[in-house]
Design a protein that fits this description.
By secondary structure, the protein is α/β, with parallel strands linked by helices. It folds into 3 domains: 62 residues, PUA domain (Archaeosine Trna-guanine Transglycosylase, Chain: A, domain 4, Roll); 102 residues, RNA methyltransferase domain (HRMD) like (Transcription Regulator spoIIAA), CATH 3.30.750.80; 202 residues, Rossmann fold. It is built from 10 helices and 20 strands. It has a 7-stranded mixed beta sheet, with helices on both faces. Strands 2-6-5-4-1-3 form a 6-stranded mixed beta sheet. It is globular and about 70 Å long. It starts with a strand and ends with a strand. The mean pLDDT is 96. The protein binds S-adenosyl-L-homocysteine. S-adenosyl-L-homocysteine binds next to helix 6 and helix 8.
Length: 389
Amino acid sequence: MPTLSIQPRARIFHGHVWVYATEIKGRFGEPKPGDVVQLQDARGKPIGSAIYNPQSQISARLFSYRRQDLDLDFFKRRIERALKSRVDAGVDTSLCRVVWSESDGLPGVIVDRYGDHLVLQTLTLAMAQRQDIIVQALVEVFSPTSIVQRNEGNVRKAEGLDQVKGVIHGETPAPFVVRHQGSAFHADLIEGQKTGLYLDQLDNYQRVASLAKGRRVLDCFSNQGGFAQACSLAGASEVTAVDISESATALAEKNAEISGAKIKFIAANCFDFLKQQESSGASYDLIILDPPSFTKTKASVSDAMRGYKEIHLRAIKMLQPGGIMATFSCSHHVSTGDFHESIVDAAVDARKTLRRVTTYSQRQDHPILATIPETQYLTGFAYEVIASW
Ligand code: SAH
């Protein structure tokens, strides 16, 4: 069995599952890209089984603390275990991320379930090479009508893999409408942005909407209007939703027609919109900010921080005492602490006092592992502007 020995003090000894190229001390048995390798410490003590790809900076990813092959039985066990954890957490598993990579002991495998349809991503070389076995395991566990692959994105590039999408099992699903807690969404599993919906935010729509009754709501970066619809249906007095994408705005309009939500949709750049609204003296009672990740790399964190600061400042200035800002960050490279700091900076500049209403995180179908900080990426806060002392 090919083996890697790992440098002392590597993150794998602190509960992480990644081995960086620089943390490899020696290679034995000529491991090939995509192989299962055994990991051992510098003294030869076994650590576990990992997948190997020397082309990636993350050259090995541990998936078991035992000696383990990647066979059908293994994939079925891991998928069933992942599914059970969602059921136990009370997540609606008919609209759900049923497998999330390292968080479910399957590095590079992501599976989203939209009723009878599954969307599969294999983002590591070893898992891409074993995609057929994974598909078989999924068929046995879920008996889906179709499985679509969405094998795109930078992670695949880093692993030296192609960009491919399309049906790999069953029928081609036509775009369809998904209903969730009264709201409507269009799912286009093959052409849609991401896999069609933001599953990680589904629970937060209701939580934010619980603050919306009787309020004038502004939903910035609204995409298909998940927050806007939930707020309108929860009794907001008026709702405005803004997104730069014309196509997302058009879909969101159709969604609102189906769900009965009353929303004014605007296709615009939120930075421009917020600036213009603030300078024209507009005011709202609840402002939701859910921008895309402002940074894909550590190098551009300071740009992201400027972006957050700007939208926070403009939002806070448009809130009167009693008004609430619900703001989210999904930037992997911006820590919760840094994100919070940008709220603090904005409050200081705006000379307003903010009182915490609540905090938000990703839905439980994106499990957070204590020893893998990268598994926590979505963070949010609701703050109320209070009257000055
Ligand atoms: N709140 C949404 C998800 C938002 S994803 C939900 O839960 O469904 C981020 C959205 O921001 C995308 O729809 C994208 O089109 C939009 N976007 C990106 N840059 C923008 C900008 N500068 N102004 C407005 N919208 C923008």
